[in-house]
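Please, structure for the following, as tokens.
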Amino acid sequence: MKLTRKLVLAKAKASDLESVKKLNCWGCNLNDISIFSQIPNIEVLTLSVNNISSLSPLASCLSLSELYLRRNMVPTLSELCHLRPLTRLRVLWLAENPCCGADPSRYRLTVLRCLPRLQKLDNQVVTEDEVALALVEGDEVSTPTSSIQNQLPNNGLPDAEMENDALNYNMEETNKIREELGMKLLSRDKFSSPSSPSTMEKPTMKKTHVLDALLLLLRDLDEEELQVVHTATQNRLQTYTLDSGDGQRTSAEKAADIQH
């Protein structure tokens, strides 16, 4: 069943689509929600217990803060890429969809890596430590190729040419991180031309560009987002400290064995 303008206005008791801010379509047997491309000011949306499989129409609902999608037909977590532009989204209920899989922990970490601004997922409060862990251990949600080509400049270049062009490589690394954080992608003119990739080894070049990308991102983050980065960084440093400590103890143990 398609959600129509008439049904939306009747349920929201509104005179026009732009004035709709809250809508409850629980259990309406919906499978087509394309109408939401015309409802930009929606803030709280209930679509639980329907047959919805695509979340692409929600990408333009930039004011959305609460979204309830329990018991639908969302096939994979790649659909979450359509929610990345929704920087005000704080509550998401996605449980009981095919995309949730058989591993609840992995599912939750993956969702939070894709949408780190969430404060509640599936009726469970999200903690800062959980988000920090998700950014490190959660699976990366891949964006459909068509979406990437529509957003990235110079998308007509072949993959091989993109890899051989240092400027495009830097831009690709930066925009990949911005996309994961739900931030607007940067255009080509925001990047300065780096040195040729032929003058340095690829691993070194990649580390340099990733660092450049992270430093560039920090300029756009607010206090809440910076706190998430800070927590993730601390956890990462603790991991390195523990690994280093284990290595030192192992060496000491080996020396003791030789002496005895």
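Confidence is low (pLDDT under 50) at residues 148-167, 192-202. DSSP finds eight helices and six strands in the chain.
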